[in-house]
Amino acid sequence: MSTIFTLFMILIIIASILLVIIIMAQNPKGGGLSGTFGGASATNFGVQRTNDFMEKATWTLGGTIVVLIFLSIILTGKPSQVAPTMPTPARSEAPVNQAPANNTPATQVPATK
What we know:
It is rod-shaped, with a radius of gyration of 39 Å. α1 runs antiparallel to α3 (44-77) and α2 runs antiparallel to α3. Helices cover 58% and strands 0% of the residues. The chain is built from three helices and no strands. The N and C termini lie far apart (96 Å). It has a domain at 50-75.
C-alpha cells in the first residue's frame, strides 16, 4: 500500500511542477510566451493558438492534480485488513486490606481505690 501512495505523490509533484512552469510562462497582460515567440509583429492567429494551449494545459494539469489526490485518498484511505487490536486485560479488583484482628484478650487494669 505504501508503494501506491509513493507513486501518487510522485505524480502529484511532477504535475504540480509542470503547472507552476505553465503558469509562470503566462503573462496576465496577454504577452507571456506568445509575446516572446511572436514579438510585436505576431499575427493574431499565432498568439491566440498559444494562449489556448496555455489555458488548456493549465486546466488539464489542475484537474489532473485534483483527480490524483482523490485517487490517492480513495486507494490508500481504506485499510486492506483489520489491524489486530490489543486484548484488554480482564478487570480484577484488588482485595481491600483489612486490619488484622486482635485475638489477644484485653488486659484489665487494676482499679485504684
